[in-house]
Amino acid sequence: MTRVIGLTGGIASGKTTVSNILKGLGAIVIDADKIAKNLVAKGGPALDEIEKYFGRAVLFENGELDRKKLGNIVFNDAKLLKKLNEITHPYIIEEITNEINRYKKTYNDRVIILDAALLIEQNLMYLVEEIWLVVTPEEVQLGRLIERDGIDAGKAKKRIDAQMPLEYKKRYAHRIIDNSKDLAYLRAQIQANWDRVTE
Ligand code: ATP
Q1: How confident is the model at residue 108 (pLDDT cuts 50, 70, 90)?
Q2: 14 lines ligand 1 (CB under 6 A)
Q3: Does any ligand 1 atom lie closer than 6 A to the CB of residue 29?
Q4: Which of the four pLDDT bands, split at 50, 70 and 90, describes residue 131?
Q5: Ligand 1, atom 28: nearest CA belongs to which residue?
Q6: What is residue 1's predicted lDDT score, i.e. its pLDDT?
Q7: CA of 18 to the centre of ligand 1 (A)
Q8: Per-position DSSP letters for 64-100, written without gaps between them
Q9: How far is the CA of 129 from the centre of ligand 1 (A)?
Q10: Atom of ligand 1 nearest to the CA of 179
Q11: Which end of the chain has fewer CB atoms surrounding its CB within 10 Å, N or C?
């Protein structure tokens, strides 16, 4: 049986929706985004290093990270973005590995899902046994993003365009989850894949 599955896909492709279906089937879900956020939270292990490198100016008065400020700095400078990733990456890997091992030990018969939007961008593929990529045609993705986040089409398009191309991600996917239609269509695919990995 496959134990650890990486779930990835573009913005608003349906990863959270798929995670929730999988939870309903009995999977344990590790949320990589939540882990990354905790690492840079006040008292989090990566925050000290970020302060040392980027300066006190990227923190608020109360010591919390000013994500917007740091974001503006790194997204305008590829070298600084690389540096930030170098700081956070080892912590992310360590924490995800710890969680996977902890769940493996505690629940020896449960499937573990690593829900990670940046699984491929951050080279986390080796942490999982199989990769599921959630895909949607761009116009569907755009519509869902506009609706969910209440943003205009221009902004939504920009966010989609800033991402790694889907065609590149497909090279790493063992299974493609087609989320172009309704939820019943999505659920049926998840169920079929679930049956395959748990049999
Ligand atoms: P992000 O990476 O931005 O957090 P995500 O990949 O987790 O997004 P979801 O939040 O699961 O994506 O889905 C995006 C939006 O599309 C949500 O509002 C969700 O309810 C809706 N959605 C997802 N799948 C379907 C579907 N098959 N039919 C209709 N709406 C859907």
Answers
A1: confident
A2: yes
A3: no
A4: very high
A5: 182
A6: 73
A7: 9
A8: -B-HHHHHHHHTT-HHHHHHHHHHHHHHHHHHHHHHH
A9: 24
A10: 27
A11: C
What sign for the dihedral angle of Cα 42, 44, 45, 49? negative
Structure tokens at 71: 């974001």
- DSSP line for 21-40: HHHHHT-EEEEHHHHHHHHT
Residue 23: pLDDT over 80: yes
Helix (H) or strand (E) holding 110: none
Contact 6, 131 (CB under 8 A): yes
- Could you give the domains of the chain? 3-40+90-198 (3.40.50.300)
Residue 179 near ligand 1, beta carbon < 6 Å: yes
Write the CB contacts of 159 (distance below 8 Å, at least 6 apart in sequence): 11, 145
pTM: 0.94
For residues 66-86, give the mean pLDDT.
94
Residue nearest to atom 14 of ligand 1 (CA): 12
Q: What is the pLDDT of residue 2?
A: 72
Residue 75 has pLDDT above 90, yes or no: no
Summarize the confidence of residues 70-92 as an average pLDDT: 94
